[in-house]
Structures are given as structure tokens and as C-alpha cells.
Design goal:
With 56 residues, this protein is mostly helical. The protein has one domain. It is 79% helix and 0% strand. It has 2 helices and no strands. It has helices at residues 2-23, 29-50.
């Protein structure tokens, strides 16, 4: 069954990620940079949307 194979792959991925988090190896400079970039973009979008007279 395809859905079972997909869910097993997902379960394996989650297990690996949990192990990496527990070992302190999940966070990398690249992942941190991507998270900061996404956060700053969301902040900029929210600020622009809250300005009066700006299209939403």
C-alpha cells in the first residue's frame, strides 16, 4: 500500500529528527539562517500590512 510506505518513511524521518534533536545535532547554521530569514520576512510583511493606506 502506498500510504503505508509513505507513513513509514515519515515515521523514519521523524525518528531521525528526534534523535538529532536529542543529540544536539539537528540545528545547523544553515537551518538557523533560514529560520531567521523567514522570521524577518514575516515581520516585514506584518509591518507593511499594518501601515494605514497600504494594500493588503
Amino acid at each position: 500500500m502506498i500510504s503505508r510506505a509513505v507513513s513509514e518513511t515519515r515515521e523514519e524521518r521523524l525518528a531521525r529528527i528526534r534523535q538529532e534533536i536529542a543529540a544536539g545535532t539537528y540545528e545547523t547554521p544553515e537551518k538557523l539562517e533560514a529560520a531567521v530569514d523567514a522570521f524577518l520576512q514575516r515581520q516585514a510583511d506584518d509591518e507593511a500590512a499594518s501601515r494605514p493606506g497600504q494594500p493588503r
